[in-house]
Amino acid sequence: MADATQYCTFWVDTLYLGIDVHSVQEVMRTLEMTPVPLASASVVGLINLRGQIVTAIDLRRRLGLPPRPDDQEPMNVVMRTDDGAVSLVVDEIGDVIEVSNDTFERVPDTMQGEHRALIRGVYKLNKQLLLILDGAKTALPELSYAAN
Amino acid sequence: MSDTGDSNEIVNEFLVESYEGLDQLDLDLVELEQCGGNAELIGRVFRCVHTIKGTCGFLGFGGLESVAHVGENLLSKVRDGSIGVSPDLTSALLRLNDAIRSMLTHIEAHGKEGEFDHADLIAALVRLTDAKAAQVASDAAISEQELADALELPPAIPLLGEILVEQGHVSTADIAAAVHEQNQTGAPRVGEILVARGATTHAAVKEALETQQDARAGHVSDGSIRVDVALLDRLMNLVGELVLARNQILQCTATNADSTLNSTTQRLNLITSELQEGVMKTRMQPIGNIWSKLPRVVRDLAVTCSKQVTIQMEGAETELDKTIIEAIKDPLTHIVRNSIDHGIESPRDRVLNDKSPEGRLLLRAFHEGGQVNIEITDDGKGIDPVRLRAAAVDKGVLTAEAAARLSDREALHLIFAPGFSTAAKVTNVSGRGVGMDVVKTNIEKIGGTVDVTSTVGVGTTLRIKIPLTLAIIPGLIITSGAERFAIPQVSLLELVRMEHEEAKTRIEMIYDSPVYRLRGKLLPLVHLNRTLGLARTPWPNEPGAPDVATSIVVLQTDGVPFGLVVDHINDTEEIVVKPLGKQLKGISSFAGATIMGDGRVALILDVHGLAQRAGVLATDRDRHAAEQRTEQRAAGEPMQTLLVFSSGGDHRMALPLSEIARLEEFEPTLVERTGRYDVVQYRDQIMPLVRLGNVLEGVSSNAAADDMMQVIVVSHNEQYVGLVVDRIVDIVETTVSVQQRRRPGTVLGSAVIQNKVTDILDIRRLVQDVDEEFLAIAPTGGFALHG
User: Fold this and answer.
1) Could you tell me which CATH class the domain B490-622 is placed in?
2) Considering only Cβ atoms within 10 Å of each terminal Cβ, which end of chain A, N or C, has fewer?
C-alpha cells in the first residue's frame, strides 16, 4: 500500500464517509428517479445517465440510518463497479482528500451489526473519523424479500 | 437456393473459421515455444487442429484431413504429457499450420483440394509422435528445414500474365517481354503493352482482368469483415441515444418559427432514422444462413433412420437480428431432428397409411406484427395426446388424475415438460420430447414463444414466434401507480376498456379472484398495482372503487391468457431494451428497462415472471408444474374438450372427452341384473351400468322405460363402466373455471359452459367406487385385475 491514498468524501447523516477516488465516475445533483417496485428498500430507483441506466442506492437506508429530511436535496456519487455504474445517494459532498496510511485502523470489534461488513476501516483525521466504504459490497444490497 | 450455393457457403464458413483458428494457432505455437507448455494452451492448440480435421472429414477434403490427423495424434500425446514441448515440436507444428493454410488457400481458389505432397511433413510428425528419442537426435536438422518451409507463403491472387497464359491467349515469352518493357518504361500496364504489341486482343485482357477480379472477390477474408457484435451493440446504443436527443430537439423546434433551425432539424430527423435503419441492418441476417445447414442434417439423419425425407423452405430471406439467429440455431436443428426421428414414419408405414413413401418437412419463415414466425411442419404420424398422457404418468411427470384432466392441447404441451427429456422409452412412445424443454427454454430466453399443434396421422407443426431484434422491440406503454411500464408486444393479445358502470357488472368475483368474461371465456384478472405492491387499488365492483374507466391488457404466456388491469394505456412505441443492474436481477417481474422520449427510465415488464408472481401460472416449473396448474384451474385455463349431457330434465353435466371410451345406445331389453347392478354384455365383458340418479343426489331420469338407453362408456382398469344418461347435449371446446366445489367425490364442481351452469363430474372417483363394489360382487374373477 502506498503511503497516502485519495478518497472522495461525503456525509450521510452524521457519518463522514469516503470511497476510493479511482472508483468514482462522477458526482451529480439529484436526477429524476424511476422507482423499482419489489426491489430492496435501499434501491431508490433507476436514473438515466446519458443513456446508461444506473441503479441508485440510498446510503441512509443501506447503512440503517434515519431517513433524510424532506427539505434536504440529496447528491449522487456515481461509482464504477464490475457490474456497471451504481449511484450512491448521499446527503452532502465533501472534498477529495489525501490521507496518510499510518492513520488507518480496522473497525473496532465493538462495532457490530450487519453494517460492519460495509466499512473497510477508519482513518483518524484531526477533527473527526473518516469511514471507508467497501464500494462493491455497498453497491450490492441484499435482494428484497418481496422479490421471488 | 441451389445445392452448390449451400455447400459453397459451408465451405466458406469453414475457411473463415479455419483461417481464424490458424491465426490463433500461430500465436499459440509461438507462445508455446517461448514459455513451454501449459495445459490450457496445449488444449487450445489441440482443439484447433481437431476441429479442422473433423470439418475436413465432413466436407470430404481427405488430403487435408490426413495431414491434420497426424498432427492431432501428435498433439494428443503432448496433451496427455507423454511428449514434452520442444522447439522441434513447435516448429513441426508451425510447419503443419502452414501446410494446412496453403491447402486451404487452394481450396478457396479452386473449390477443391490441390495436389500437395506433404509426405515429409507427415513423416516428421509421425517421427515426433512415435520416437521420443529420435526426436532429440534429429533436432537441429529438421528445425532448420522446417523453418525455411514455414517462411514460404501460400500462393495468393494469380498475376494477370499467368491468367492470360493459362487461357492460352499469349505465350510466356510475350509476357516476359511485356513485363520487361513495363519495367523499362514504367508507365503503361502489362495488358495495354500486350495489346499494343499485338500479342493479344483487348477482349482477352478484359476477360483475364475479370478472372483476376473474381479471384480477389473470392478471397473470403477480403470480401467481408467480421465485426464484434459488442461493437455493433454499442453503435446501436449510441443510435438509440441519438434518437432520444432527436426526439427532444423535435419537441423544442415544434414551437419555434426559425426556418433554418426547422429545416436543419428535419435533416437531422431523416439522417437519424436512416442511421438507425443502417445500424439495425448490419445486425440483420437472413434466416437462410442457418437453414442452409439443415438439408445436410436432414439427409444424414434420414439415411441413419432409413427414412425418406424431403425438406422444403419458404421465406429463407426473412431477416433476423444476428444474436437471435445464433440463439435459434440449435433449437431449430433440434426440432428438425425430432421431426425426422420421431415424426416421420418409415416408408413402409407411410405407404400402409396411404401416404407417399417420402416424408415432407416444411420450414416457413415470415414476418407478422413486428415478429418473425417460424413454422416447422412434418406430415408424419402426429402426436397422440392419449399416449402422451400415459407416458407422462408413466414417467412420473404427472399423477394419473392430473394427466386425465389435461385437455388435448395441454397434453401436447407435455412434450415441453422437463421430465420428458431423458427417457428414450418415453420418446419412442410419445413421438417427441428429447430436450424439447431445452428448446422451449432457449426460445423463451430470447423473448420468443413456441407452440405445437398436431393431428394424429396427419402431422405436426411447431410454431416459433420471436422478436426481430433483441435491442429494439415494439412495446405497449402503460401507466400504473404514477409510473410508466413497457410491455413487450410479443405477449399482447388485445386491449379491453370499460367505463366504471360497465366494469362494475362485467368484472365478476370467484371468491376473491376477479374474472372477466371475454367472449364467453373466463379471463382471470391481475391488477398490476397490487401485484407490484404499488397500491391496493380496489376492483371496480368493490366498495370504495374510484369512478374511473378500467383498462385491461390481455396477455398470454405459456399458452395461458390473463388480463392485466392497469391505470392507463398510453401508446405503442419502439423501445430500446437495456439490462437491469445486478441489484435488481432477482426480480423476475421485470425484463429490463428502457428510456422514454422525455429521458425518464421506464421498466419493461416480464410477462411470464409477472404471471408467475400473480399466481396465474404454476410457479414451480418442474415436474409438479402441470399438477399445480390443474389445482389453479380457477385461475383460468386453456381449452378443454368436454362432453355435455343431461339427466333429469335440465340438469347439465360434463365430462372431459378424453375420459370417454365410446358413446353407445342399448335396447332396454338387453339389460340384465347381477347383484345390485344393472349390467349389459359389452365387448366380451359384463359392463355395469350406473344410473346417475342412483349415485348423485337430486338427479333423476326423465327417460321413459322403453326408450333407447344413452350410455357413456368409460374404461377403468380395462373394465368398462357405462353411465346411463338422458341425452347427449354437445361436445364443446371451452375454458373451464370450476366456480364452486361441492361434496368431494362425484362432482368436481360447477362451471358455466355455454352460459349454463354445468356440473363437472369426477368420473374417476365415480367409476372407481362402482368398479370396486362391482368387482367385489362379481360372480367370477374374469375381469381385468386391478393395477
Assistant:
1) mainly beta
2) N
